[in-house]
Amino acid sequence: MLTIGQKFPQFSKTAVVSIEKGKEFETLTSDYLVNDDNVWTVMFWWPKDFTFVCPTEIAEFNKNFGEFRDRETRLIGASTDSEFVHAAWRRDHDDLRGLKFPMLADTSKSLAEDLGILEPTEKIAYRATFIVDPTGIIRWVCVNDLSVGRNVAEVLRVLDGLQTDELCPCNWEKGQETLTV
């Protein structure tokens, strides 16, 4: 599995960005992650569309979209399902119709494989979350078992800590003092 300090892999994938007819799809590339505007990226993966735990996580990320935006951070959701399955799920599920971030389709499973998050038996992505800095370097990775949803508040807390570029003690939260040496 790729880890902290490594470059996020190159990719070019189709993503669902809307449910409006004719405007559903865009191509996202790894170039999207690298920028001079100090914009970070959180890419989070789920195993399968049309499941039970996954929409709870996606909806929670969407509910916190403004929190990520306020931190100059892009959100990208991803799975190994196709863009057509993503679009159908978004149209079908009440909590997913109004998503404010793209749903990346890694149908070839090449990006999940490059990241090292492909579950070996079913060949689906683990519940992995990557925080990527504006230079395209992975700064945080968290992977959950397929049955356990992640904690979006913890993703935000870690992002806050990384963006301070200072030493943050255990249970540190934004607004608290950092450590001085």
TrEMBL record:
Asked if the record carries the keyword Oxidoreductase, the reply is yes
Q: Which domain of life is it from?
A: Bacteria
Its EC number is 1.11.1.26
Enumerate the UniProt keywords alphabetically. Answer: Antioxidant, Oxidoreductase, Peroxidase, Redox-active center
Q: Which reaction does it catalyse?
A: a hydroperoxide + NADH + H(+) = an alcohol + NAD(+) + H2O
- Top enzyme class, one word, equals oxidoreductase
Q: Which InterPro entries match?
A: AhpC/TSA, Peroxiredoxin, Peroxiredoxin_AhpC-typ, Thioredoxin-like_sf, Thioredoxin_domain
Q: Which CDD domains match?
A: PRX_Typ2cys
Q: Which Pfam families match?
A: AhpC-TSA
Task: Report if keyword NAD is assigned.
Answer: no
Quote the protein name from its UniProt record: Alkyl hydroperoxide reductase C
